[in-house]
Amino acid sequence: MALIEVKDLYKIFGPNPKRAIPLIKEGKSKKEIKKETGCTIAINDASFEIHRKETFVVMGLSGSGKSTFIRCLNRLIKPTAGQILIDGVDIVKMDSEQLRELRRYKMSMVFQHFGLLPHRNVVNNVEFGLELGGMEKTERREKAMEAIKLVGLEGFEFSLPSELSGGMQQRVGLARALANDAEILLMDEAFSALDPLIRAQMQDELLDLQDKMHKTIIFITHDLDEALKIGDRIAILGPDGRIRQIGVPEDILSNPADNYVKEFVQNVDRTKTITAGSIKQSCPVLNSSKDGPKAALHLMEKHSKSYAYLVDSQRLLKGIIHIEDVIELKKKKENDLSTIVRHDFYTTTPDTAIADLLGTALQTKHPIVVINEENKFLGIVSREMIIAEVNEGVDESDTPTVFSEILEETETLENE
Amino acid sequence: MNRIREIFDIGAGFENIIEWLTEEADWLFDFIALVVEGFLEGVNWLFHFPPALVMIGLFSLLAWRVAGKGVALFTLIGFLLILYMGYWSETMDTLSLVFSAVIFGLLIGLPLGIWASRSDSAWKIMRPVLDFMQTLPAFVYLIPAVLLFKLGPVPGVIATLIFSLPPVVRLTNLGIRQVPLEIREACRAFGATPKQMLIKAEIPVALPTIMAGVNQTIMLALSMVVISGMIGAGGLGNVVLKGITQLKIDMGFEGGICIVILAIFLDRVTQAFTTKDKS
Ligand SMILES: Nc1ncnc2c1ncn2[C@@H]1O[C@H](COP(=O)(O)OP(=O)(O)OP(=O)(O)O)[C@@H](O)[C@H]1O
Ligand SMILES: [Mg+2]
Questions:
Q1: Which domain, by its residues, includes A369?
Q2: Are residues A101 and A246 in the same domain?
Q3: What is the tens place of the pLDDT at every residue in A364-383?
Q4: How far is the CA of A181 from the centre of ligand 1 (A)?
Q5: Could you tell me which residue, A235 or B148, shows the higher pLDDT?
Q6: Is the same domain home to A344 and A285?
Q7: Residue from the list B185, B205, B277 with its beta carbon closest to the beta carbon of A111
Q8: Domain containing A48 — which CATH number?
Q9: CA torsion, points B12, B14, B16, B20, in degrees to nearest 10?
Q10: What is the mean pLDDT of chain B?
């Protein structure tokens, strides 16, 4: 069962909002309904599921209803119609006491402008949620300290928020949300107020934290690059408050559901979203436990290369072998390839964006080897492959022009 | 015209109301007078009991802790001057009147301000009343106070607390309404009850603004307490009044200096609270 199930959800702001629903079903537009009834449609017939432990990103332009949606999940906003089931329980029907329980123990939230209490220092802010739940002082202090450590704010426990930079303030916001150990983390444009460098850093740290903690994260953003980087799945909201597409990042990029999504996706910097893992090629390798010089020469000859990669029987990477060393080895009548391996080549992990590989790829004559954390050989990425990918997203009309063509053009213009 | 005045005699109408109040509700006013008098006596004793030099030391220490060296030095010299001029007892009388009126004023004003911040309809009613209260000249408050509570310090305190009420109500309301939406949302998102939100977030965040209201209320109270000298409230008001009515220029001037010293002391010390919390 999915952790969160949203069924036929509507949120309409304005006087007597329920009467707008039949109008929506008649197919009238957001504008027409606004004119007719004075109601604003923020969420329009949303139905989908959020799985346990996934990072679900909701994105859309300003005013598309993202904040409204995330606030429905913890009922800061009451939906106009529909159901939101969390572990099978409909939270739309909960009374205020049940909602407080839900908010204290089941979900917590990180805000765009941090929402910290200015008169409380860092620890006191972090333990705020625990304090509301009535946890005893020493216990909540301990948990707050753990959360502070998790977000890397040690040493700032007793600073006031106003003494911290934006990035650090948001770490406090994050620590506060982590402190109560809630299963669900709601993040409304949590990094949008930060400058780009800090923002990228916070994204990386969130990914690291998620690797360790496995929360269910609902992350709102209006930035597609951020969505692609963080999201396991992405939902794209249209300007009418309707969900246009839900899918894994790859899916959204390669099969946009409609023109709206397509336009949205066009502006992505491909080099930042395509990773080494997604373009890597497999290549034949030598196995140190069974292959000798003869097999090595045969392999290199067959692929017309002057080198080959050596792995062990678990496919863990040992290094690179050059043809001249193999010939030496053969002359000496020795068999062990691992005595001649070299280590002077580049490796990368599968989730590295190709933008980060380009510089290295242009310098080195060997391909870059893709390995995982255990050094397992996954494939290679060559300079040619990276350039081909970069080229894919290039708009033909913006590419440089050969000078002779320009001269020809001016000549014909003059002749006219 | 005269016929109309006979039918709608405003002055007589007011007299009737006061008469009715003093006859039918005198137990209520007696009770209020009793409470105020008891409190005032206690406060009076508190300010008069320690020797003047000890009090001056305490005031200076307080000024030093909350407002810094300069204000402390001013307090020391100022109060020594008061003592030297021989108005110590009157100054302490005035201070007790101000203190009592402000305490009662806050007991009424803070809850009113909080209520106004929570309910638009309550604020809609309170606002014109506060506006009206602030346009009336100070003397006007003396009339019902005298009629309902006779002469002396008690009607002085009552007139003062009503006169000085508006700023604290206004600024409490304003301060709480200005608490950023995200802070409220954060409170609710972490499961705060409305009471927890008020105590742990809204009031502390609004505190500098509320303290600005308290500061204004104290200053208004001081000015009113002096005016209540006219209805026998005692203290420095009496001194100034005597100076005016008996043409004793020296007395009026010295009383004035004492009031200014007290005013600066109260203003600087309470203002320090409004700025200290912001930094
Ligand atoms: N309290 C409200 N009363 C009336 N209309 C509202 C209210 N809150 C939001 N709306 C409207 O609902 C729509 C969705 O707003 P919402 O704040 O959810 O958008 P958003 O996607 O979060 O935008 P942004 O990127 O600017 O934060 C907008 O048209 C907005 O004007
Ligand atoms: Mg928003």
A1: 278-392
A2: yes
A3: 888 899 998 888 998 898 88
A4: 29
A5: A235
A6: yes
A7: B185
A8: 3.40.50.300
A9: -170
A10: 90
